[in-house]
Design goal:
Strands 1, 2, 3, 4, 5 and 6 form a six-stranded mixed sheet that branches. Strands 7-8 form a two-stranded antiparallel ribbon. α10 crosses α20, α13 packs across α17 and α19 packs antiparallel against α20. With 450 residues, it is an alpha/beta fold. Helices cover 55% and strands 9% of the residues. This is Rap guanine nucleotide exchange factor 4.
Length: 450
């Protein structure tokens, strides 16, 4: 009996070590720990050796940053990355020097919600606000009728309708996506804003002024900030459904979004460069950038850069690729081998298996693994938890924990341009995320050969 009791305390201690924030912020968990403390205190008269276990539980209780009542009255903050367009501001020039503060459910979000005529209202709400509450706020400010829906309108015109119990929807928007509110019967009337088409001029001149090593360094610093801000539990909420747990996945959303941002940044810069010789130089720079990312174990951006160069709008630029020196062509072919998806990304998995932390993994593949595990296996069998499925999901979480088990320590390279300018640039990338528009620009800079 004593052994079982001590195992429970050990389990709670392990739970606390991997979910410290939950113990400090969740009133239900705090209530459970308090009840456990009372039970241990009562049992310690019969089992004196439980006195030490009681001290363990007391230390966990004392670690609470605030009581449940204090948490409710805690001052809400607006996270720098959650203002209007969701692009980072110059505030991050100082934030980048220190550990990034994870986005929390009580952080306030300021964003525009558009109508069909492209008028908008600006709303402020916490990250854990549901779609139902967003509709209520917008309806009141815009004096709209009933049967309203909130949806994302993507830059290509696609519309994604959110369910009323969805929460934390803003960080899950596509790169140039916008939130719209409309009566349900008018959904088909929604069209993208002109600004969603993305930039019309390249920043290749600015990129030329930056050393490739400095670019890779600043990209990796930012990627690591984003990666270390997310909690492993966010992967579970994301796969099983945030609404089921009433938890946000904002930090994971932003890290996954970063992959698309780097990918489309590469494609955007390539197709907006009208001069073929400059385009060749830019292509060489991106291949070098991918090589440095791979060397520094930033596989997240490595994959994104190579996928950007593999975009059909870029791969069809035959005049550009023909002028690429042989050694760069060979290097790019090696990159494509690492990215080969055959046999469940076997080459990539073998490559990662040989690496020691810190590692920035190819996050979309980890999410794919978890989704496949979840959808391919029942969570319950005859009202009993399927622990085999839980062990498989836990393996992915252990992979994330392993990748972050050592600090990322990179020596700052010599820079041609101000480090602050490079830092600001990589955290505020402007991209075209509409493949149709990318292809149009591609045909403009290199028309189809007759």
């Amino acid at each position: 009996m004593l052994t079982h009791k001590r195992r429970i305390v050990h389990f709670v201690q392990e739970w606390y070590s991997v979910a410290t924030d939950a113990f400090q912020e969740d009133p239900k968990i705090q209530g459970f720990v308090e009840e456990l403390h009372v039970a241990i205190k009562e049992d310690s008269d019969l089992y004196p050796t439980l006195k030490n276990d009681e001290k363990t539980i007391i230390s966990i209780m004392q670690s609470k940053s605030s009581s449940p009542s204090a948490a409710k009255t805690a001052k809400k903050k607006i996270h720098p990355s959650l203002i209007l367009s969701r692009k980072t501001s110059r505030d991050h020039l100082t934030d980048g020097m220190k550990k990034r503060r994870p986005i929390k459910p009580t952080d306030e979000n300021i964003i525009k919600v558009y109508c069909a005529d492209h008028t908008y209202t600006t709303l402020k709400f916490t990250m854990d606000t549901t779609v139902t509450e967003i509709i209520y706020q917008a309806k009141d400010k815009l004096s709209l009728g009933d049967d309203l829906i909130i949806c994302e309108v993507k830059s290509n015109g696609d519309r994604i309708v959110f369910k009323e119990n969805n929460l934390c929807v803003t960080t899950g928007l596509s790169l140039n996506g916008r939130l719209f509110i409309t009566p349900r019967e008018h959904l088909d009337a929604l069209t993208p804003l002109p600004e969603q088409d993305g930039p019309t001029s390249m920043t290749a001149v600015a990129i030329e002024m930056m050393s490739t090593k400095e670019l890779a360094y600043q990209i990796t610093l930012y990627d690591w900030e984003l990666f270390t801000s997310l909690h492993e539990f966010e992967l579970i909420y994301w796969v099983f459904g945030r609404h089921k747990f009433k938890k946000i996945t904002a930090n994971l959303d932003i890290f996954l979004r970063r992959f698309n941002e780097i990918q489309y940044w590469v494609a955007t810069e390539m197709v907006l460069c009208s001069n073929v010789s400059k385009r060749v130089q830019l292509l060489k720079k991106f291949i070098k950038l991918a090589a440095i990312c791979k060397e520094t174990k930033n596989l997240h951006s490595f994959f994104a850069i190579v996928m950007g160069l593999s975009n059909i709008a870029v791969s069809r630029l035959s005049q550009t690729w023909e002028k690429l020196p042989g050694k760069f062509n060979k290097l790019f072919s090696e990159f494509e081998t690492v990215m080969d998806p055959s046999r469940n990304h076997r080459v990539y998995r073998l490559t990662v298996a040989k690496m020691n932390p810190p590692i920035l993994p190819f996050m979309p593949l980890l999410m794919k693994d978890m989704t496949f595990t979840h959808e391919g296996n029942k969570t319950y069998f005859e009202n009993l938890v399927n622990f085999e499925k839980m062990h498989m999901i836990a393996q992915t979480l252990r992979t994330v924990k392993f990748c972050r088990s050592q600090p990322f320590e990179l020596d700052s390279p010599p820079t041609v341009k101000s480090s602050a300018d490079v830092r600001q640039y990589v955290r505020n990338l402007q991209v075209i995320d509409n493949d149709r528009i990318l292809t149009q620009w591609s045909h403009k800079v290199e028309p189809r050969r007759s």
